[in-house]
Design a protein that fits this description.
This protein has ten helices and 15 strands. It has about 350 residues and is of the alpha/beta class. Bound molecules: adenosine-5'-triphosphate and magnesium ion.
């Protein structure tokens, strides 16, 4: 998968900008706060239909403007595509795929895959389970649009069930309607659980190898999927949900389900989050991101676009080398505050105050 052209219009601090990246490594350099990350954000938006930095689309529209647009031309196994993301006022958007309007976000998913690695991704290793669930969900959604739909549905049913649980406090006669939601929730929960378990199993193989290679064979990284409601099929999930019913009624919320899952990350059998050193955590984050790239390639048959935001300066020479070697076949975007020398750059783009030019 390659991006052949990226055009921005009133996106963040860009008025109008256009660049034509090469299939290899594209260096994006410039001083701080000039618009480097904004370019990556625009690509991310066209791949996943959301920003990696904000849930509020309005923020991506240039100050003082009413709307913005990103247009991305890409190519995959000889097939060319054009993705256009129009950001409209009041948080609305309109997506066009080869000029045709996209009705549901799921139709965009998987058209162009990307993996972004930025310093804040250390949170996958360091922070609470929500970050790790997000990591799993993003990857699964990119790989399988059906997962994305099911997850959306699950969240909707979960919200409705929680609303009902709250409403029951005032009107106990509504209890009859609970089993309808339970059945739907159980079916979706079992599906999500199965998909996540399968994904972690595959990811584990790469993560293990990457981490071992990077650490010179001294460390063993293990991934452990920890489902909150362990069920491979809808009947089991329903039974477990029913077991929790009295607690749910008491607390007025759904206490069990994939919305409470976690992904355990261990080194030498110890929780990385609690016991890992800063260096170990950083290496693990790198191993995970690389594994994500490799797995997406396996599952989709082509290399996703890799974006490395501000990470090169944080890695030592051997890790940098390892990353570049493993990611070599992927089209890569690397940001840096000055033109880094020493590694093969296909094209270099200089970013200054919302303008970009190839140098
Ligand atoms: N909606 C917007 N309209 C206009 N400018 C914006 C908007 N949102 C952000 N900016 C500007 O974009 C700039 C930040 O861009 P970006 O995050 O891409 O910087 P960067 O080059 O990646 O910097 P760093 O090296 O510090 O990471 C800031 O100057 C900010 O004021
Ligand atoms: Mg930046």
């Amino acid at each position: 998968m390659n991006i052949t052209k990226l055009e921005l219009s009133r996106f963040r601090n860009y008025e109008e900008a256009s660049l034509e990246p090469c299939p290899g490594i594209n260096l994006i350099f410039g001083q701080n706060a000039q618009g480097k990350t904004n370019l990556l954000e625009a690509v991310f938006l066209c791949c996943l239909g959301r920003s990696h930095r904000t849930p509020r689309e309005r923020e991506m529209i240039r100050y003082g403007c009413e709307h913005a647009a990103v247009e991305l031309h890409c190519e995959r196994a000889g097939v060319r595509r054009r993705i256009r993301y129009n950001l409209l006022s009041e948080g609305r958007h309109r997506i066009l795929l080869d000029g045709e309007p996209v009705q549901r976000l799921g139709e965009l998913m998987g058209r162009l895959n990307c993996v972004l690695f930025a310093p804040e991704h250390l949170s996958i290793v360091k922070d609470g389970p929500a970050e790790r669930r997000r990591f799993l969900d993003m990857e699964l959604s990119q790989t399988y649009p059906s997962y994305f739909y099911s997850l959306q549905q699950y969240n909707r049913v979960l919200r409705q069930r929680n609303n009902l649980l709250r409403a029951l406090r005032d009107d106990p006669s509504l209890l009859d309607t609970l089993p309808v939601w339970d059945e739907q929730l159980a079916r979706l929960a079992a599906y999500i659980c199965r998909e996540r378990a399968g994904f972690v199993k595959k990811l584990q193989v790469y993560a293990h190898e990457n981490h071992s290679d990077i650490s010179g064979g001294t460390e063993l990284l293990e991934l452990e999927y920890r489902p909150n409601l362990q069920a491979d099929d809808a009947e089991t999930a329903l039974r477990l949900l029913e077991k929790k019913r009295s607690e749910d009624l008491r607390l007025c919320t759904t206490t069990a389900g994939p919305h409470r899952d976690d992904l355990g990350l261990l080194i030498g059998g110890k929780e990385l989050r609690a016991f890992g050193s800063q260096g170990q955590q950083r290496t693990a984050a790198l191993s995970l991101k690389l594994s994500q790239l490799q797995l997406l390639r396996d599952e989709t048959g082509s290399w996703p676009v890799l974006m490395l935001d501000d990470v090169m300066s944080e890695l030592d020479e051997s890790r940098r080398q390892y990353l570049m070697e493993r990611a070599l076949p992927a089209q890569t975007f690397v940001t840096a505050t000055e033109a880094e020398k020493g590694w093969p750059t296909g094209k270099a783009f200089f970013v200054e105050n919302g303008t970009v030019r190839e140098v």
